[in-house]
Design a protein that fits this description.
Distance between the termini: 35 Å
Structural class: alpha/beta
Bound molecules: S-adenosyl-L-homocysteine
Order of helices and strands: EHEEEEHEHEEEHEHEHEEHHEHEEH
Largest sheet: 7 strands, mixed
Strand content: 25-35%
Radius of gyration: 22 Å
Number of strands: 16
Helix content: 25-40%
Oligomer: single chain
């Protein structure tokens, strides 16, 4: 997963307004104020020849063009009263992003109790908090993407002590670890990207959860639980297209009455997933939306045909 760095050069008086606009659309804010220090024994001063730059980052995914357009529109309005340059967009590879972004990577609170704590930050845990320590490294799953947050909230609500959980497309392992913290007895995280598998394994170690969690390279069709050991919950933060195409394999490892939490779905593609789920014996019982992204919760219904597979 690559990122887009959105940078805007603005006059001093416009910096707060630009930061406000970028904060509303991106992940965090960085303001580069150019300083000069003409002599080593003098305090640094604002460099009058260069203007400040305000930056934010957005995931380079299907939603990026619409977000970029919304930012451009808001900046255009601001440009009517202040001097603001058009935005400069730079693609940042995930491996560079991980380092570029580290200083700005905050502790993120999601839902009622879940807290994502970057591996290099300190956090004093409150009694009821579910802590996920994370070094996302090269894998997707930083806790800042809306789809991840929708899933984390669903995990808090759906989880019951002792649940067996399958996380398809575990990425950094974020949902797998959150599920274990929320009380799952066993969690299996699978991903077809070996880089993600390594990152997830590292993060499981970091959280000392190796007894509860297993991470395996593969996909949903590789998962065949023994009779009586079916999963209570399947997590699938993939894309609409992948969710739709692997719907039967998301349903198969679930017990009847078990649920799939599916996200990564842009709102205008939700029907694709809902229809594929219906055919696979998964009935959508809940929907939530954040920005352009949708999360579906679907329950596995009792169909003889599926049982015979
Ligand atoms: N679960 C994390 C990461 C989601 S990104 C989170 O919620 O933030 C999606 C992940 O799914 C990526 O790591 C990608 O490698 C993986 N993936 C995509 N298609 C897959 C498939 N068919 N089977 C297994 N993993 C898949």
């Amino acid at each position: 997963m690559d990122w887009l760095e959105i940078a805007v050069l603005a006059e001093d008086e416009a910096v707060d307004s630009v930061a406000e606009i970028l904060r509303g659309h991106g992940h965090g804010i960085a303001i580069d104020q150019p300083f000069v220090q003409p002599r080593i024994d003098e305090a640094p001063q604002r460099d009058p020849t260069r203007r400040p730059v305000v930056k934010t980052y957005i995931p380079d995914d299907e939603a990026a063009p619409a977000i970029r357009q919304a930012i451009e529109q808001a900046l255009w309005h601001l440009g009517q009263i202040r001097s603001v340059e058009p935005l400069a967009v730079r693609r940042i590879k995930e491996e560079d992003w991980a380092n570029a972004w580290k200083p700005f990577f905050p502790v993120v609170h999601v839902g009622q109790r879940t807290v994502i704590v970057p591996a290099w930050r300190r956090h004093r845990r409150r009694e009821d908090e579910l802590i996920v320590r994370l070094d996302p490294g090269l894998a997707f799953g930083t806790g800042m993407h809306p789809t991840t947050q929708l899933c984390l909230r669903a995990i808090e609500r759906q989880m019951q002590p002792g649940y067996r959980v399958l996380d398809v497309g575990t990425g950094s392992g974020i949902l797998t670890i959150a599920a274990a913290r929320a009380g799952a007895a066993k969690v299996l995280g699978v991903d077809n990207d070996p880089i993600a598998v390594n990152a997830a394994k590292e993060n499981v170690r970091l959280n000392r959860l190796s007894r509860v969690i297993r991470i395996v390279e593969g996909s949903a069709d590789d998962v065949r639980p023994k009779p009586g050991q079916e999963y209570d919950l399947v997590l699938a933060n993939l894309t609409a297209r992948v969710n739709a195409s692997i719907a039967p394999w998301l349903a198969r490892p679930l017990r009847v009455g078990g649920k799939v939490v599916a996200s990564g779905i842009l709102w205008d593609t939700a029907d694709l997933v809902i229809n594929a789920f219906a055919e696979a014996g998964l009935r959508v019982v809940e929907q939530a939306q954040e920005g352009d992204w949708v999360m579906l919760i679907a329950e596995r219904i009792d169909t003889g045909a599926l049982g015979a597979e």
